[in-house]
Every structure is written in C-alpha cells, then in structure tokens.
Amino acid sequence: MTTTESSTRRADAAVLRRIWRLHFWVGLFAAPVLVMLACSGLVILYGQPLDALLNRHLLVVEPGPQTVPLDTQVATAKQHVAAGDTLEAVTPPDGAHASTRVDFSPVDAKGYPQAEADVIQVFVDPYTGAYLGQREQLSGLVGWANQLHRMFGNDGPHMQLPSLGHVINPSAYPQSTIPVGIGNLWMELTATWILVLLASGIYLWWPRAIEAAKPLLTVRWRQGGRPRWRDVHALTGVVVAVILICYILSGMTWTRYWGENWRAVTATVTPSAEIDAPSTPAKLGDLDRLGRRIAWAATDDPIYASDPSPGAARLSYADIDRIAKDEHMVPGYAIFPPADSTRDGATTYGSYTVVNRWPQRVSEQRTLYLNQFTGATITNATAAQDGALSKLTSFGIAMHMGNQMGWLTRISATVACLGVLLSVATGLLMWWTRRPSGRSGLPGPASETTRANTPKKAMIVVTVVAVILGILFPAFGISLLVVLLAEAIVAARRPPPGQASRVTSTTTSRSVEPSPE
C-alpha cells in the first residue's frame, strides 16, 4: 500500500469515526421524540377508524325513515352546554350511519396565543334528534395523540420570538414577535436535529473503499449479534430516510415559529390570487382548531362580508346544508356561523363559511362563503387560487396526513412510522451488544489522532452545511452554538496530549470510541 493510499484511508476512517460519533449522540437525543412521533402519528393516521371504534356510542347511529331538521338538532346541542358557550361549527352527518356534531368553545376558554382553544363536541342523532353525549376534542386516545404529536402547541408557557413576516411585510404582519409555545419550539428544534441524524446515517451507510466487506442492501442474519442489528438498522434507515425527510419538512410548516415565518415567505414570494369582495375583520384562521379544520394555505384568507337585504332574516343551518350539498362539498364539511362586527356605528355582516372536511387532498381544498341572508355564493376559494409555494406546502401536508394519494400514502406513512420504531430498537440493540461489560459504552471525545487525520475539506463541508441549516432553521442554529460552546469548554479542560497518553487506561474504562462497524 502506498503512502498516499494509507493517508487516504486514515482520513476516510477519521471522518467516518467523527460522523458516527455525531450520529450516536444526535440519535440519543432524538430517539425519545422519534418514538413519540411515530406512535402518535400511527394513532392520528388511523384516527377516524379508531375514533369510530372507541366512541361508537357518539359517532354511529341507526338510520331511520326521516331526519330531524338540522336547526332542531343544533338547538338540542345548545341545551347541553353552558349558556355562555359559543357555537363554533356544525358538521352534518357524512353518511347514513353518522351522527351530527356541534362544536362549542367554553365561555372561559383561553384563545391564542395563551393557548390553542379546545372545543366541546356535542353529538346528536339526526334521525331521532336525541342527545348522544359530548366530549372535549382533545380527550381520548386520538385527542391525546394530537396533543403529543404537536407537543401541546401553544398550550402552557410560551415565549416571544422575532417575526420574519414583520421584517418582510410590516403591514401584513404588524406584530414584531410571534408567541411560541415552549413545547412546540422544542419539537421544531428536535425535528431539525432529526434531519442531521438522517443525513449522518446516510453517510455512514454510503459505500466506501475502506468498508468493502460491509453489505449495503442485505442483512447478515446468520452472523447474529451487532452485525445483524447494524444491517437491519442501516437498511431500515435508508429505506425510510427519504419519506422521513419529507415528513419532517412538511411537519415543520405546522410549527408555531418556523411554520408562521414560512407562511410569510410563501405569501410574499408567490402570493395567492386576491378575491375582489368586501371582507370582515376576521380571518379563516380564526376558525381553526389545532390545524385540523382549515387548509394551511387558507389560514390568512379573510371572512367575506354579506350584502344585507332589507328586511331579510339570516338563513337557517338547514338552508346552508342544502346549498352545500348542491355545491357538492365533500361530506363531513363544517358549517361556521357568520360573525357580525360593528365599528363606528356601522355593522359589517359576516358570511356562512363552509369548509370541506379535514384531512383533505389538495383537490378537495375548498371554502364556500355564502351570503347569510340570501345564500348566494360570495366566493368559492380553492387551491387553484393559491401561490405555488402555498400549494406545494398544502400538498406536503396532505401527504403527511396520508391523504393525498389515498391508501398509497397511508401505507407509506405506516411504513415510515414502523421503520422509525425498528431503527430506534436496533440502534439500542447495537449499543447493548457492543458496550463493554459493566460500562456505559458511550463514545468519548475524538482522539488526538482522529482529529489530526480529519481532512480540512471535510470540516469545511460540514461547517457550510451547518451554517446553511442554522440560517434556514434559526432554532437549530442557536442550539448548535450551544453545543459547540459546550464542546469548547470540555476541550479546554481536556489534559494535554502527553498527559492524556499516561491516563489512557483510565479513560477507556469510562468511555469508548468504537468503530462504526
């Protein structure tokens, strides 16, 4: 072997060792969140059949010869909540065996930004008009899965962070800061580190000359021990990596901080088509609850105003329901009552707002605004009016929810969740089988030899990638600075090379730096 070949192998081994150390520590940090996201994601993915199974007494009814008027059902629901509770939405049955759902917000409910308001869901039998029961939206298995998956959103403590939208367009985003829930910010931070975990994992798997014997797309089942778990871990990670990267990026658009800043960027770079119609001070996002009703791209859309007709009365829910069916809205649509506002003695009348059921495909993204007095269509907002980036984001979210391509995306989402759980389990088994007896087996700092053999080119590439990620995801950038500061403090306390060599036997008993293989 020539001197050049030997030097190249040492350099490759040094980079490989340091990337492996990064992968190990990031995996240790991200594994609990990955497990939580995978488990809660599976529950949300199959939330509708699970909900029907666990809450059959609320959701499923026996069909009858005729139905009770929808407004009578709404009146029944009002009788079973507090007098001060606000009617939020009415969801007519989406099938012959489905109940009617009427949503209320409690009189003492905290709104955004203090919290993301929960709603009371009241269920009524559409055939008999009987009250079936009620629940809080976030209760039960599916409700808790939604809470965990978003790390409780803006519920609980929150902090004010600078708004990029305010810098880009102060008139559209007058608030200079965004109130962000601590839990949701932690989710955003961990999600970015998961991207680092996936990238470092792909690098470790990637074929290279110094690991010629390492299998790439096969598993050494007969060999057993760590090699077997390493092969399963690597193969699973590579298979689901692309899906997971898409899921992480699409999920980031829902985060309270990065997601709101991304919304401002999309609205500025590729603005949606404006609808020429009078509007109220309210926005469609005001009707949102936990991101589960309103299409992402439609959140900033205004609620349009109704032109009052002299002597005309507000239409009933039954009237609006008939119009929605005639307009072929997707069954499961929600009807939001109009909200009027008065300013300087002048009243602006809101409109009935009908939104297609959630989750939805991009092709199903539709909001119908109806004059509350005449039922005339004020405007019909669809994804076709959204800007390119907003439409792309909506597509990513529909894929994230397993809805865009039906069972195909649901299967891919299921594979991704199960792949995450398998990767975490095999990573744990790899560490357990490799660790020294009676020791933790955690990797210690890179040795002087490893640091000396690491090529400057590799360090430059890693630095550039880290800077780009830090700019794109500020929370990650700040956390990376904290990690580098901690590393610097540890390095400053590390004994000189000569002294370190005299205590090697002691340090190796406390920490190890094994080969990635």
From TrEMBL:
Coiled-coil residue spans: none
Keyword annotations: Membrane, Transmembrane, Transmembrane helix
Location of the region described as Disordered in the Swiss-Prot/TrEMBL record: 496-517
Keyword Phosphoprotein appears in the UniProt entry: no
Domain of life: Bacteria
Pfam families tied to this protein: PepSY_TM (PF03929)
Annotated TM spans: 24-46, 232-254, 407-432, 458-486
Biased composition (Low complexity): 501-517
Protein name (database record): PepSY domain-containing protein
